[in-house]
Amino acid sequence: MTPIKLTPPGPASGAQKRCGARNGRAHTPQYSREKLASKPTGEPGPKSRYSPGSNYRPPEEALARRQHEVLDLLKVRAAHGATRLDAPGHLSLSLSQRICELRQMGYRIDTVREQVGEVWIARYVLVATEPVPQGEAVP
């Protein structure tokens, strides 16, 4: 284990003053050898279940509830369609995934791209309120 060199207390230099030294002393964190020794080196830390590339999938009942909420949102806003900005906070980031799942279930949902300022957004419009059976052709 390599030793950590800590700056001894003393008058702060100009760089230390600009970086937030307080009362003429440089702010240095105090490390204990026990804390440093307890951390494994070279091993990756725990991976978040939401991090990219993870295989996390919410429970099926939670997915069904969110799909139903998205379907209700599309039915309420049938004339105008719904965007990510119209969805409630817990659905706004996963709206496109729930739309994809509803399409796989057989619902007919069209996507219209709109430009708002310099940003393009997707507006989802529910065409068929009942799912189309998988074997039938969709016009």
SSE order and pairing:
Blueprint lengths: L13 H5 L14 H6 L21 H17 L12 H4 L2 H11 L2 E9 L2 E10 L11
Antiparallel strand pairs: 1-2
Helix pairs in contact: 3-5
Task: Describe, in plain words, how this protein is organized in 3D.
This protein has 139 residues and is of the alpha+beta class. It has a domain at 60-128: Arc Repressor Mutant, subunit A (Orthogonal Bundle). Helices cover 31% and strands 14% of the residues. The chain has a two-stranded antiparallel ribbon with strand order 1-2. Helix 3 (60-76) crosses helix 5 (95-105). The chain is elongated, with a radius of gyration of 27 Å. The chain starts with 13 loop residues before the first helix and ends in an 11-residue tail after the last strand.
Low-confidence stretches: none
CATH topology of the domain at 60-128: Arc Repressor Mutant, subunit A
* Spatial order of strands in the largest sheet: 1-2
Number of DSSP helical runs: 5
**Beta content:** 5-15%
Summarize the structure.
Helix content is 31%, strand content 14%. The chain contains 5 helices and 2 strands, in the order H-H-H-H-H-E-E.
